[in-house]
Amino acid sequence: MRSKCGRTGRRRKNKAENGSNASGESRSHEYEYIQLCKWLKERGFQNNYLRPVEFTDTGRGLATTQSLQPGELIISLPEKCLITTDTVLHSYLQKYIKRWSPPVSPLLALCTFLVTERHAGHKSCWKPYLTLLPDSYSCPAYWEDDIVSFLPQPVKQKAMEQKTELHDFYMSSLPFFKSLQPLFGENIDNILTYEALRWAWCTVNTRTVYMKHEQKDCFSSDKDIYALAPYLDLLNHSPGVQVEAAFNLKNRSYEVRTTVSCRKYEQVFICYGPHDNQRLLLEYGFVALNNPHQSVYVTKEVLLRHVSCKDKQMEKKCSLLQENSFLENLTFGLDGPSWRLLTVAKLLCLGSEEFMCWKKVLLGNAISESNEHSGLELVRKICLHLLEDTSLILKEISSFTSKNILVKKHLALVEALRLDELKILQTSADILENMHRASR
Ligand SMILES: C[S@@+](CC[C@H](N)C(=O)[O-])C[C@H]1O[C@@H](n2cnc3c(N)ncnc32)[C@H](O)[C@@H]1O
């Protein structure tokens, strides 16, 4: 009997299931993945067609061995497979959490559980899952300060805040960690270290799915919205797909349904949200290729550096913009400067005799030809400034040398982000040049 798929189909099938695939290398035959699938099956998970593959462009992800249609269920993970604060409260940590005051946050409870379970090694019943988690992450919390300094504003500021926040989180958690000493024969300071907490924090931040839990008295009032979902968390992000994901109360499983089709043997993606690359880098440690949400941000500082300091109404103009929340989210995108940026520029360029028309400008009305022209000119100057700045940083990045593999990896991420921004700024500069010519 002949199979229906023919020679090409057979070759592709073999590649996806056993060996290499056009864009990646299958991992499903490896011991750790076999153990994980066995462990998940024991907990009621039925995996029919998702296989782990190391893809050349996105890293490890899941491929499908059958084509998926819109509306189809990608994965349904029983509650027993999830790690949530309920899991933590059913563990040896329960008594320590319940007696701690002020109450620990749901995030700290989860992070502590991850670290202590990882420390337990083969004694942990979560071992098949924990073994396959990354050893480290590529979000800025892991970066050295000189790599962070190559980031554009405002993500640079946020990356520094992320590092500080993590450090504060560790320092404030130390007394609670100390209270856990009776659980261990070894000094707790060597188990719940800063590095271990950073790893757990990034595990939670980059891999959990949203799952709202009821507020519990033993936890602080911070939102309890996390669930670690083994196997499901191998799905990578694509800005171009849409999924529906939620916990199904009827069958008590976390389900993800695709709203787009996916071809047989190709990588299955989900969407982590409509994020630009700055946010993806900050929160997940990667930059997405061809991201339609990508934009370059213009900060208040850059904006004000390009306006006339002789303008007596400048202070008033700035406070009007501030009051009307017009000083955030000023961007360049692949389709040129945003409407907000152009509007702000026009308001800043209003002549003294036009100043009373500021409301009309914010509503999108044109005041005069000269105002339209000077607003455009201001945006063009800002674009050229950012273009020059980005090119300079890219030169600095290419001359930065390090033998440390992780540093090189982090540097490559900043470079990818900066190159993406360069492309946007170049396109915007061309668009502005054409607008400038047309307005003459
Ligand atoms: C939920 S995990 C997805 C599985 C992950 N690749 C793994 O090997 O475990 C999220 C992480 O995957 C990586 N990732 C997700 N989508 C990606 C993409 N489109 N390109 C590159 N890396 C991606 C990022 O490191 C992100 O923090």
TrEMBL record:
SUPFAM superfamilies: RuBisCo LSMT C-terminal, substrate-binding domain, SET domain. Residues 1-14 have a biased composition (Basic residues). Residues 51-273 form the SET domain. This is SET domain-containing 4 isoform X1. GO terms for biological process: methylation. Keywords: Methyltransferase, S-adenosyl-L-methionine, Transferase. Residues 1-25 are annotated as: Disordered.
